[in-house]
UniProtKB/TrEMBL annotation:
Keywords: Acyltransferase, Transferase. This is BAHD acyltransferase DCR. The keyword Transport does not apply. It comes from Rhododendron simsii (Sims's rhododendron). Residues 229-248 are annotated as: Disordered.
Length: 461
């Protein structure tokens, strides 16, 4: 570890919890129950999904800021009340989301992290120095049976602790505020996560209610009841187990709008198909090829690309964009490393385009039926060797989440649910078509990737 990185990580040791509270919907809701469906259940053994938003504003009146955030949270939970509930099971052992006015609600933590500046957190490598700013490290979704579903830590803010499967943490910084959120991934996907975050920010900016309420009837998308028998994990201190194999490194590569346009133009100039490649398909091929080179695979080694496709408009009947829950499925394609690298970029882009295009309502239904006949609980490390898995999306307007003290300076994923080849895509801070690519790789492969001129040609250092 470089001395300057070690020094920054040492500075992170001083995060001090100031207070803990719970926030419930402002108005009584009564008893509500909602069955988890086939789109939700495979992720029950994943870890809580963590997001960290770092702001330059909000620190001058930290206590007042936290109270305003809690007030806004109480309003937004009137619609997103499932996040204030818990996991439960019905009489047949089928998982469900349960809410009752007597429950604690979302966990909100206020913390102080003196001596840390926004610039310390802007280094685009690693997650260790961010870890104390985000709650529920190493906590599995199944623990939502006894933990809040949302925890917000105010190492600046509240906990998604009692928001069904989420935790948010806000940390007071020397010159800003860090909001760390942990969401239970068994009850919501990225689209629902950022719908909630945007709605919360909207209320904090003066809206009296949520202008785009969530669609909560998840059984409209799938209504098959699946009983799962899962042992509860033993109590832990929240430290995620170290993955087997070589250590990982994480790094963010920033692709400005000009780079994205060049990558997309290059792959489409030689596209033999009548349908043009999308930005996602062009960038995915670029990243997949580069990671495969960095791994130094043999020509005959199989490499797999995976994307978690949003199925809201693919299912029959289609679901609204406001559907609250998981409505994603993993879509896979693969080939020999020699074929991927020996062909131009449009070869990989074509494979990705074909796999995504074939994932229609019929394919989704077949996947669900197969899983229901023989349920398999996925784990965060089940992607397999030589896999590149794309999560999140540059479509999510993460830099528009303004609670009244400015837009975030930095948006990052936490340390949960990372493995060799996990990639998160985010909207770039500069806006437009810029995209940030957050990659986790075995340390040796990351070193190779950092030297790959073909990959880095258009990247902002």
């Amino acid at each position: 570890m470089a001395p300057e990185v070690a020094k920054k990580e040492e500075k992170m040791a001083g995060v001090k919890i100031l207070s803990k509270a719970h926030v419930k919907p402002r108005k009584p809701i009564g008893r509500r129950e909602c069955q988890l469906v086939t789109f939700d259940l495979p992720y029950i053994a994943f870890y809580y999904n963590q997001k960290l938003l770092i702001y330059k504003g909000g620190e001058s009146d930290f206590e007042g800021t936290v109270e305003r955030l809690k007030d806004g949270l109480g309003v937004v939970l009137e619609e997103f009340y499932q996040l204030a509930g818990k996991l439960g099971k019905d009489e047949d052992g089928v998982f469900r989301v349960e809410y009752d006015d007597d429950m604690d609600g979302v966990e909100v933590v206020a913390a102080k992290a003196e001596g840390i500046e926004v610039a310390d957190l802007a280094v685009e490598e690693g997650t260790d120095k961010l870890k104390e700013l985000v709650p529920y490290n190493g906590i599995l979704n199944v623990e939502g049976l006894r933990r809040p579903l949302l925890a917000v830590q105010n190492s600046n803010l509240v906990s998604y602790g009692r928001q069904l499967y989420g935790a948010e943490q806000v940390t007071k910084l020397k010159d800003g505020l860090a909001m760390g959120c942990a969401f239970n991934h068994a009850i919501l996907d990225g689209t629902s996560t950022w719908h909630f975050m945007g709605s919360w920010a909207e209320v904090c900016n003066g809206a009296q209610s949520v202008t785009a309420p969530p669609f909560l009837e998840r059984t409209k998308a799938r209504n098959t009841r699946v009983k799962l028998n899962l042992p509860m994990p033993s109590d832990s201190n929240g430290d995620a187990p170290s993955p087997a194999g070589p250590p990982l490194r994480e790094k963010v590569f920033k692709f400005p709008e000009s780079a994205i346009d060049k990558i997309k133009s290059k792959v489409n100039d030689s596209n033999p198909n009548p349908k043009p490649f999308s930005t996602f398909q062009a960038l995915s091929s670029h990243v997949w090829r580069a990671i495969t080179r960095a791994r130094g695979l043999k020509p005959e080694d199989i490499t797999v690309f995976c994307v978690f496709a949003d199925c809201r408009k693919r299912v029959e009947p289609p679901m609204p964009e406001s559907y609250f829950g998981n409505l994603i499925q993993a879509v896979f394609t693969g080939t020999a490393a020699g074929l991927l690298g020996g062909h131009p970029p449009e070869f990989g882009a074509g494979m990705i385009q074909q796999a995504i295009g074939a994932h229609d309502a019929k394919a989704i239904n077949a996947r669900n039926s197969e899983w229901e006949a023989s349920p398999k609980i996925f784990q965060w490390k089940d992607a397999g060797v030589n896999c590149v898995a794309m999560g999140s999306s540059p479509r999510f307007k993460v830099y528009d989440v303004d609670f009244g003290f400015g837009k975030p300076e930095i948006v990052r994923s936490g340390s949960n649910n990372r493995f060799d080849g996990m990639v998160y895509l985010y909207q770039g801070k500069s806006g437009g078509r810029s995209i940030d690519v957050e990659i986790s790789l075995e340390a040796g492969a990351m070193e190779n990737l950092e030297k790959d001129e073909e990959f880095l040609t258009e990247v902002v250092a």
